[in-house]
């Protein structure tokens, strides 16, 4: 027996609206209901009292939390700020969503794992983050689980897109600036994941809730944590090589180096591979291959035609 459609007048709240995933969500969620997209200028997410008041006044049917403190290295020395956004905010949103009987969708990270397994991680594997960013994101997951209600947590990895700050845009910028040699880490494995893919898959799932296509029992079975990344795997070196090959940047030499040769304040997991089998099994969704998604992103961004590296 299907539940009635969520009231059309109740909006969808999207946080982190200027971020890589948030900006895509404002497009993919269109048609499900009125979208209220907030960025830092409109709502200070570190002011939890203000966040509570904003949500209570808005009364959304769904909250999609795409906001996060993502400066991984900076988080090592700015722990309080990372904790406020990555751990405290999800708890506040979960509590308010529960009171409103709203669905909360939240994004987490592969960095909740230590990367020591020799296979893709499952949702049931025990987290053991190596850095402050991963620790605070894990705390956010656990806060949402403790509150309960209707929630979906999507762990993703190596997010990139046509906007914001990310690995792909950095590589393209360095090539455009005339760099002919780059050292890129080759012993960390993961799946580069296009922000547009994340938003599209989120919208497919959100539509089932917002349009009332499935009953409460169906949602009780599926509420929880899911891995959501592109299919396949590569290294940062492989990702960089694929970017330059796709944009005909033949003059850029990408040298493979070890993690120890590129020290950073925050330790990274060597294995960031996540299994998306649960997502496919419970939602019937097929994640795109990372190579295919990269080509689509580059085509959309216009770099394949305009960069003209020789």
Folded structure, characterized:
Belongs to the dTDP-4-dehydrorhamnose reductase family. Pathway: Carbohydrate biosynthesis; dTDP-L-rhamnose biosynthesis. Residues 12-301 form the RmlD-like substrate binding domain. This is dTDP-4-dehydrorhamnose reductase. The chain has a domain at 12-165 and 191-232 and 273-288: NAD(P)-binding Rossmann-like Domain (Rossmann fold). 42% of the residues lie in helices and 15% in strands. The chain is built from twelve helices and twelve strands. It has helices at 20-28, 48-58, 72-75, 79-100, 132-147, 167-176, 195-210, 216-222, 236-246, 277-283, 290-301, 303-306; strands spanning 12-15, 35-38, 62-65, 103-109, 150-156, 159-160, 181-185, 189-190, 193-194, 224-227, 234-235, 253-257. The strands form four sheets. Strands 2-1-3-4-5-10 form a six-stranded parallel beta sheet, with helices on both faces. It has a two-stranded parallel sheet with strand order 6-9. Strands 7-12 form a two-stranded parallel sheet.
